[in-house]
Amino acid sequence: MQVNRELFNEVMVPNYNPSAVIPVKGEGSRVWDQQGNEFIDFAGGIAVNCLGHCHPALVTALKEQGSKIWHLANVMTNEPALRLAKKLTDATFADQVYFANSGAEANEAALKLARRWALDNFGEKKAKIIAFNKGFHGRTFFTVTVGGQAAYSDGFGPKPGEVVHCDYNDLETFESLIDDDTCAVMMEPLQGEGGIIAPDMDFVKGVRELCDKHNALLIFDEVQTGVGRTGELYAYQGLGVTPDILSSAKALGGGFPIGAMLTTKEIAKHLKPGTHGSTYGGNPLACAVAEAAFDTVNTQQVLEGVKVREQLFRDGLNAINEKYNVFSEVRGKGLLLGAVLNADFQGRARDFLNASVENGLMSLVAGADVVRFTPSLVIPEADIKEGLARFEKAVASLVNA
Question: Cβ-count burial of 33 within 10 angstroms (0-12 exposed, 13-18 middle, 19+ buried)?
C-alpha cells in the first residue's frame, strides 16, 4: 500500500489539512520523515511531547504495563490510576481526580461538575458560566461554546446557554458580568491558542476575589500550561491564585492520550455514581505512561531547566529579530512562547510555519499573527541553537522573497 499525503484525501475526513511531510521516527527533539529528512521539533505535538519522542522512561512504562493489563471498565479501579491520582493530589491543591482521554473531556467534566455543584447548593438559577474571548477549551459542543472563538463554535446549530464572554485582562468588564447567578468562571492561566497572552497579576487575583464574593467556582484550564510547561508544575503555582477545579492533559501523558480534572473533595462529592463517566478514563496503559512522565517532569532539575531554556529561546529570537525586524514582541512563559509578527508581516504566521518546515524545523502558530514554540521541556541546548539557526533561515527566506 502506498502511504502518502494523497491517501489522506482519499480516506480521512477533511477537517484537517496536514503537511505533505509524514514523520515516521522520532528520538528526543529530532524527527525523521518517510524520505529520511530530519527535523528539529519546536512544536512538541502542540505542547504534548513534554519529554520529546520515545523517552526511555515512557517507553519502559508502556512496555511494562503492556505486559500486565491494558484495560478495565470503571466498575473496577487499577493500580496505575490510583498511583497517578495520589501523586497529582500530593503535588497540587486538589484532593481528588477524575481521569478522561483528552483536555476537552477534562474540561467537559469540569463544566458539568460546576453546574451540578451550583444546582445542588443554590438551585437552577445559578447556571451562568463566564469565559474569555480568544480562549480555547476543547472541541466538544459545551467546551467549544465556552471557548471564546466563534470560528470554532459557529455553524453547528443552537449552542448551550448561559455562557458569556469578556476580554482577557479586562477586570472592569468582568466585574460587570459576574453576579450571584454565576456558577463558574473558566480561564486559561496563560492563553495558548488565542495568541500566547499572559494574565496581569491584578486581573487574575481580581477574578479569584470576585468568584469568592459571588460563590462562583474558578476553573483553570491547564491543558496546555500544565505539567511543567511554564516552569512551574502547574501555572497557577506561579500566580499566587488557587483555582477550585483544574484540568490537565497534553503533557500529562507525554504523548499518550490522557486527561484529568482535579478538584477538592467538597466539590467532587457532587459527581455521585452515575452522573458522569468515561470508558477509557483511567486506562492502565495511559496512567502508567502518565505516571512516568509526571515523575520525570516534577523535579527541580527539569522545572528549573525550563526557565533556562526559555531564556535561550528569547535570546535567540531577539537576535533574529535584530537582523530581520519581523516581530513586535516575544511573549509567554517557560516553553510556551509566541513570536508576535509586526505590522509588516501581520496575518502571515502560517507562512513562517511552512518556511520552517522547508528548513528542517517544526513550529506552530497561535492565530494568524503569532508563531508558537512548545518544544520538549528537556530539549538539549544544542538542539535549541540548531533549531533557531534553521528558523533564522526560514525568516530570511520570507524577508528576502
Answer: middle
Does the annotation mark 136 as catalytic? yes
pLDDT in tens, 87-142: 999 999 999 999 999 999 999 999 999 999 999 999 999 999 999 999 999 999 99
Q: Which residues contact 66 (CB under 8 A, 6 or more apart)?
A: 285
Q: Kindly indicate the confidence band of residue 149, based on its pLDDT and cuts at 50, 70 and 90.
A: confident
Options 221, 244, 369, 383, the catalytic residue: 221
- Helix or strand run (H / E) with residue 164: strand 163-166
Report the DSSP pairing between strands 327-333 and 336-341: antiparallel
132 a catalytic residue: no
Overall pTM > 0.85:
yes
Which of 134, 250, 352, 391 is flagged as catalytic?
250
Q: With cut-offs at 50, 70 and 90, classify the pLDDT of residue 151.
A: confident
For residue 148, the model assigns a pLDDT of 82
Gap between the Cα atoms of 211 and 298, Å rounded: 30
Active site residue 250: yes
Which of 42, 99, 132, 136 is catalytic? The answer is 136
Rg of the chain, C-alpha, whole Å: 21
Q: Judge contact between 382 and 398, C-beta under 8 A.
A: no
Helix 284-297 and helix 300-324, axial crossing angle in degrees, nearest 10? 80
Contact predicate 149/134, CB 8 Å:
yes
Read off the pLDDT of residues 205-251 as tens digits, 9 standing for 90 and up. 999 999 999 999 999 999 999 999 999 999 999 999 999 999 999 99
What single string gives the DSSP state of each residue in 17-62?
A: ---S--EEEEEBTEEEETT--EEEESSHHHHT-TT-BS-HHHHHHH
pLDDT mean across residues, the chain: 97
Contact 235, 189 (CB under 8 A): yes
Between helices 56-66 and 284-297, what is the axis angle to 10°?
A: 150
Write b or e for each residue in 169-204: b if 16 or more Cβ atoms lie within 10 A of its Cβ, otherwise e: bebeebeeebeeebbbbbbbbbbbbbbbbbbeeebb
